User: What shape does this take?
Amino acid sequence: MLNKIGYIAAGLGFTSIAASVAAWYTEKGSDENENAHAERTGIFIGLWPQTFFALAMILFKLNEMGHDKDARRIVKNLESLTN
Assistant: This one.
């Protein structure tokens, strides 16, 4: 379970890199203010990948350490609370 979530976090990291570049290019315009806004948006989205990659590394390490059983127990307890 932790491995799956880790791969999702890593995928979100790569996706946010592409989204950062896409936001920068698609929001660019002829106006100087539009270009500044496009750069700020690209930089803002560009701050996300580090967080996703760090989260993925933590989740992979927790899985290596054998904490997958704990994660399954927590999810099971949460499911019983919602029912």
